[in-house]
DNA sequence: CCCACTCAATACCTCCAGGGTATGATCTGG
DNA sequence: CCAGATCATACCCTGGAGGTATTGAGTGGG
């Protein structure tokens, strides 16, 4: 049996006349007759009563008509759904993120993606940079988000945003009175650094900035993410250098100040990573959305 | 697309290897490769990732695999169900019956049919002899049950049972003291006759018997069916001649007595009727059951 | 009562597509 | 670097789907 048989059968059942059904199917009458006979023979069941006025369904034929319609509808639906899946409009995308990156860009990006592809289920997994790469290689995620990603053989990188640097400082600190702080002025303040974990990381960037400014920083504490860092600032552990987006974290007793003299072209990047060999249309659609997002976002701020 | 494509696709998806799948399908490898390519082209979707180790499904392929399995299962089920319907093992059989025929044979017969064909829904419609024939012609029923059916051009008849004749009489009637009553002894008793409606009927048979016995009966009342007739006997309206099976009707104050001298070969028949041109396997199966039933039943009693 | 009409069925032909064999291209593991 | 595995390509062949012409059967109107 063949889907063609079902199509023909339904046509004949609906027209109750082989000639008209053949016309509807854009074939001639004799092949249609044969196909129907073939179908009946294969099933071993008489589906139609031949009357001088045409064909009428038997009880078994009535039943088979229902089934045939179901099957055809299911086939239609299957192709439609599969095509949507093939275009990255249907399916599931596993995304690795790290704690404090959820602050600004990622939610907006994911929202944009959801709007474009409402039937894609996006599943977020919080994991560190190293875990993300491992998970990519094991195909447990398709995309990861992180900062300071070194290029790798099998992993592609796509920069999502660049941000400038701010300093989070206690509101009652004398320096907080200045609208802009010079880097060297931080020398006497103990630094809270993040994230712990795989190096190189944001930590190294901050330490590098200090040496450029001519001093060795006093490290007060290393913490996992920006949120914890700013919380420690509120508690008086010191100051903390954070990306622009951290300003969405409003802590009582903490203010953010611009740094006057970060080097030109300095920025904190947020990138997403993916398998270079991943041809999945879902990944393609996602990276497309990332590109759109970069275009729509304001140009990277320069310190 | 074709059911063949689905079968091939499922095999490849399960084997994850075109060569093995081809072996399983009893075809050679190249045609299978082509069929898969064709399927992908038609859908416009990459279903498999070609790796040096074989084929693995893409996300869209995974989805299509599910759908393909569903479709194939549905096709299987459809053919199976249709075949059962074609063998008269599945479907619906509308049966016309008349009130008091439900007494003995019909329930047993329907029970036997239900046991043989548990998935056939038997729908009973109470209707008179004339209505049954009309309903057969309009295909509203497929089988009718009645007595004294004259053969017709388009309607086939099949005798189900033959029964002897009894007389229902008040228990305190003097005649009731005899175990056997001769027909002529009924001469003084008013008769309750049934059924009203289309002639010839059981009524004519009873009147004929009376004339044979040499008297003109006094007609007390004509009623619709045996149940009502026996009820009137209980109320003292007279006596009522009924088929054997009426003894299942136990009314207080009514007894049944054998008639000593009904003519040889006399019987009350119960037959079923059907369209001669009805080729439905359901009808065939039903008539088969009727034949079985007749064989299994005791030979027709002779008065 | 017969002829014209309507359908389905049959006979026969053509051609494409599905299947086969042989071979190529590519990657991997010893 | 070679042997083996795996998918892809090239090419041929045959069965079957579709086409045309015709027959067969049953119906209704004149």
Structure in a nutshell:
2 copies of one chain form a homodimer. Chain A has 303 residues and is of the alpha/beta class.
Which structural category do the helix and sheet elements of chain A fall into? alpha/beta
The amount of helix of chain A comes to 40-55%
Shape of chain A: rod-shaped
SSE pattern of chain A, N- to C-terminal: HHHEEHEHEHEEEEEHEHEEEH
Strand order of the main beta sheet of chain A, please?
8-12-7-11-9-10
| Helix segment tally of chain A | 9
Number of domains of chain A: 3
- Summarize the largest interface: chains and residue counts: A-B, 37 and 36 residues
Topology, number of strands of chain A:
13
CATH superfamily of the largest domain in chain A: Periplasmic binding protein-like II
Low-confidence stretches of chain A: none
- Give the CA-CA distance, first to last residue of chain A: 71 Å
Notes on the protein architecture:
The first copy, chain A, contains 9 helices and 13 strands. By secondary structure, chain A is α/β, with parallel strands linked by helices. Chain A folds into 3 domains: 3-86, Arc Repressor Mutant, subunit A (Orthogonal Bundle), CATH 1.10.10; 90-161 and 272-296, D-Maltodextrin-Binding Protein, domain 2 (3-Layer(aba) Sandwich), CATH 3.40.190; 165-259, 3-Layer(aba) Sandwich (D-Maltodextrin-Binding Protein, domain 2), CATH 3.40.190. A 6-stranded mixed β-sheet of chain A has the order 8-12-7-11-9-10, with helices on both faces. In chain A, strands 4-3-5-13-6 form a 5-stranded mixed β-sheet, sandwiched between helices. In chain A, strand 3, helix 5 and strand 4 form a beta-alpha-beta unit. In chain A, helix 1 (3-15) crosses helix 4 and helix 5 packs across helix 9. The first copy, chain A, is rod-shaped, with a radius of gyration of 32 Å. Chain A starts with a helix and ends in a 7-residue tail after the last helix. The model of chain A has no long low-confidence stretch (mean pLDDT 89). The interface between A and B is large, with 37 and 36 residues.
């Amino acid at each position: 049996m063949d889907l063609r048989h079902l199509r023909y059968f339904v046509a004949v059942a609906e027209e109750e006349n082989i000639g008209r059904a053949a016309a509807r199917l854009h074939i001639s009458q004799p092949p249609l007759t044969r196909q129907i006979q073939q179908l009946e023979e294969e099933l071993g069941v008489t589906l139609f009563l031949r009357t001088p006025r045409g064909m009428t369904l038997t009880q078994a034929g009535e039943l088979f008509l229902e089934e045939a319609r179901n099957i055809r509808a299911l086939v239609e639906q299957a192709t439609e759904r599969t095509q949507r899946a093939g275009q990255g409009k249907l399916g599931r995308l596993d995304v690795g993120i790290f704690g404090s990156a959820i602050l600004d860009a990622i939610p907006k990006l994911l929202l944009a993606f959801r709007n474009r592809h409402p039937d894609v289920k996006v599943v977020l997994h919080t994991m560190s940079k190293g875990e993300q790469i491992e998970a990519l290689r094991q195909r447990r995620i398709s995309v990861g988000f992180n900062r300071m990603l070194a290029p790798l053989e099998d992993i592609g990188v796509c920069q999502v945003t660049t941000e400038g640097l701010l300093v989070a400082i206690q509101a009652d600190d004398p320096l907080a009175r200045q609208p802009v702080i010079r880097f060297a002025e931080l020398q006497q303040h103990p630094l809270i650094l993040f994230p712990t974990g795989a190096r190189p990381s944001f930590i190294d960037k901050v330490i590098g900035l200090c040496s450029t400014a001519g001093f060795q920083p006093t490290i007060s504490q290393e913490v996992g993410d920006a949120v914890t860092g700013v919380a420690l600032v509120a508690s008086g552990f010191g100051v903390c250098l954070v990306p622009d987006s951290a300003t969405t974290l409003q802590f009582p007793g903490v203010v953010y100040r611009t740094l006057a003299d970060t080097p030109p072209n300095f920025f904190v990047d947020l990138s997403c990573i993916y398998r270079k060999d991943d041809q999945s249309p879902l990944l393609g659609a996602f990276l497309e959305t990332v590109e759109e997002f970069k275009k729509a976002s304001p140009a990277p701020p320069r310190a």
